[in-house]
Each structure stands twice: as structure tokens, then as C-alpha cells.
Amino acid sequence: MKRLSSADREFFTLVPSGVCQSVQRSPRKSESAIGARDAGSPLRKRTGHRLANVADRVARLERDQATNLKAYQAEDQEILRNAFLFEVFHRYLDPFDRLIQEQLVAGESPCPVSLQTRR
Q1: How far apart, in whole angstroms, are the C-alpha atoms of residue 91 and residue 69?
Q2: In this predicted structure, what is the pLDDT of residue 50?
């Protein structure tokens, strides 16, 4: 069975808490672990950098053909499952929001669904 490296385990364990830091909170270990660029920059920009770092880390696992959860020990499976769900949710968040707004305007007429994202 595969095991995540200690660096990957720490990174993916901290993903949900580190990406969604509140403006009022002081920088924490999780923030630096997932790549907060400039603590003084606007929250949206910092969050964007963090989400990009998560997407890059998942893309690296994809390139290394290391995304099969069944190949990992149970503890690592849970960590990766949560990280993958988090990444997919945020990857499609904006397209789904746009689709919802388009459908509200279109009323009863169905809108075409396109979930193309920037990656």
C-alpha cells in the first residue's frame, strides 16, 4: 500500500482550514503550509493563490498517476478523499454559480450546461 509523503500528508490535511482563513484571524501554520503569498494582500487574492496551490498539488498527483485512493492506506485515503472533494468543489464553484444565475434569468427555458474551468 502507498503512503503519502509527510509533506503531502501535512499539506492535504491542512487544505480546508488553510484555504478558508477568515480576514480577522492571524496567519497560522496552515496558511503558510499551503502557500499564502502575502498576508497583507486582499483575502480574495490570498484565497486564489491557496486554491491554485491545492490544484497544482492535485495535478502533480494526477501526473504521477497517484490518485487511486484504493492504493493508499486507510488514513491517507481519507486525507486525499477530502482534499480531492475540496479541489473539485472549488474548481466548479464559479461555473455552477454562473449557471444558476443564467437559469434564474432564463426562467423555465433550460440553459445549456458547460462546466469548463480554468486549470
Answers
A1: 20
A2: 84
